[in-house]
Amino acid sequence: MLAVDRDGDPELLAGTGQLLMQASPRVWLLLDDAIRRACWHAPSWSAVAVQRLSHRESSAFGLTLTASHPDGHVREASVAHLAELHDDLAMPALTLRASDWVSQVRDRARSALEHRLGELSGTTLVATAGVALALRDRRVGRWLADRIDSVFREGPPELLTAALAAPDWRTRRSAHLTALAAGRLDLAQMLHGARHDGDLLTRIRCAEAAVRTATAAGSVHLVRPLLSSSTAMVRAEAVHTLAREGDIAPAVASLAERNPVVRAVAQAALRRAGSDPVEHYRRLLTTPLPQPGAIAGLGETGTADDARLIAPWLEHPQPRGRAEAVRALRRLGAADPDTLAAMLTDPSGSVTRQVAIALRPWASRLDLQRLRDLLDESNPQHIRMAGYRLLYERDTWTRLLIDLELVADPSPAMRSRAGNDITVWLTREAATTYSVPHGRTADALAERLSVARDLLDPDRVRLLRFHLGLKPTSDT
Questions:
Q1: Which of 49, 97, 185, 433 is least surrounded, with the fewest CB atoms within 10 Å of its CB?
Q2: How far is residue 445's CA from residue 424's CA, in Å, rounded to a whole number?
Q3: Whole-angstrom Cα distance, residue 32 to residue 10?
Q4: Distance CA 240, CA 231 (A)
Q5: Which pLDDT score is estimated for 439?
Q6: pLDDT of 117-169, one tens digit each?
Q7: Cβ contacts of residue 433 below 8 Å, gap of 6+?
Q8: Contact predicate 325/314, CB 8 Å
Q9: Computed from CA positions of residues 69, 74, 76, 78, in that sequence, does the dihedral angle turn out positive or negative?
Q10: Is 340 helix (H, G, I), strand (E, B) or coil?
């Protein structure tokens, strides 16, 4: 960009300026920082740019760049020229300088912006608002952001409409939330924001407002489109509202929802309507291929007697279905350790994670060699990690022995996990471990520590020997 400005080719200047107007706020902030840094390495550009500035020969693009110059006098002069310039590029550049750390530059930029805020087009507002809102949290960054919010609150409808559809999430969020608070959005706009905006908070707030508005107008049926939202909280809001008005069909349809929040809302809605969700779940689990959410739901609402309906789905063709079956059995206190242990080699990591969690209470009773076999380097990472988690839970000395073995593992993830766990044990648990290993266990730990000593910090080796009750060696 510095070269484009230095060479002064009109077509390149115009094209680059157009690209900048479409740039995200993040690009503007990065450009501001990059120009300050680059000036020290591009003296030829700096000299040419300052000379043009002094002779009032700078292009709009050139002024945009010199407004980020490390010299405050150059920035102030650039702002003065930008204030007189009727070009869209001037607004984002002035916005950056409105939060400048030098008060003279800052005040001049703010004065120029104050006069322009009442004449903004939708395109210029969007470009300005994105940068202003990105700067809001800076020490002197609130001034313009607050004025942009005022435009959203009280400005022309066409400017608000442009901001609601801006590519920048901060602009859309601020426009939606400010307009909602000011009562400037109609139900159609709320529903559109709730269903289609890319920002999570915006979707949720629009959904809440749409529900309130539709309820107050006696038109709750209008929120039904929210049932197909991609956001769980929005779907849950729609289910709750419709059920409250007597329409429980969406709640019944949502019992097998993937998201637990939506399931919980649906379950509560059925209970308020006098129906027990567990009966619905029991029927769902007798279908040829229940959804994973239905399996999860029975685990949330059923009893240990329902294990007979859940257990067959430990072989569900979908990994999520198998994982939910394991979780449901654990929640109902009906997990069979022998059955679950056979699933530690499941091809899905989501399943082995749930199996390892469910088997924790039996970790000390599981076959030690079988768990060690899971750590074999030929196994996939998720299987090795499941074995590690259960060996970790077995007892303190097995945990440390495995850690000392894995600090030399070929897998960076396993090495890091083992090394971090040794550190955690030494700093948080060793002092309150009121025992030491004996016999074969002590011998095995001493041997592994001897092998791993070159891979560990000398202080950690010394502390390990002390807490394990091992005699210090001549070089520790």
A1: 433
A2: 18
A3: 22
A4: 14
A5: 94
A6: 888 899 899 999 999 999 999 999 999 999 999 999 999 999 999 999 999 99
A7: 396, 467
A8: yes
A9: negative
A10: helix
Q: Encode 234-296 in three state secondary structure.
A: HHHHHHHHHHHCCCCHHHHHCCCCCCHHHHHHHHHHHHHCCCCHHHHHHHHCCCCCCCHHHHH
Q: Token pair 């139900």 is at which residue?
A: 187
What gap in Å lies between CA 219 and CA 328, rounded to an integer? 39
| Residues 309 and 285: beta-carbon distance below 8 Å | yes
Could you give the CA distance from residue 326 to residue 232 in angstroms, rounded to a whole number?
A: 23
Please state, in angstroms and rounded to a whole number, the distance separating the CA atoms of residues 157 and 222.
24
Angle between helices 319-331 and 349-359 in degrees, nearest 10: 10
| CA distance linking residue 189 with residue 185, whole number of Å | 6
Q: State the amino acid at position 161 in one-letter form.
A: T
- Rounded alpha-carbon distances, angstroms, from residue 179 to 149, 183, 214, 348: 9, 6, 17, 46
Other Cβ atoms closer than 10 A to 256: 22
Closest by CA position to 297, among listed 352, 258, 326: 258
Q: At what angle do helices 292-301 and 277-284 cross, to 10 degrees?
A: 140
* SS3 letters across 128-141: HHHHHHHCCCCCCC
Pull the structure tokens for residue 259: 């998201």
Long-range CB contacts (within 8 A, 24+) of 4-8 = 4/61, 5/45, 5/49, 5/59, 5/61, 5/62, 5/65, 6/44, 6/45, 6/48, 6/49, 8/59
Please check the confidence at residue 473 and state whether its pLDDT lies above 90: no
pLDDT tens per residue across span 302-313: 999 999 999 999
Max distance between CA atoms of the chain, in angstroms, equals 89
Return the DSSP state at 308. H
Q: Answer for the pair 396, 365: CB distance below 8 angstroms, yes or no.
A: no
In this structure, are residues 410 and 422 in contact, taking their beta carbons and an 8 Å threshold? no
392 vs 389: CA distance, rounded Å: 5
Which among 106, 97, 142, 149 has a CA at the least distance from the CA of 125?
A: 149
Least confident of 117-121, 226-230, 339-343, 350-354: 117-121
Residue positions counted in the chain: 476
Task: Give me 363's structure tokens.
Answer: 């970790």
Give the whole-angstrom CA distance, residue 100 versus residue 429: 50
Distance from C-alpha of 441 to C-alpha of 447, rounded to nearest angstrom: 10
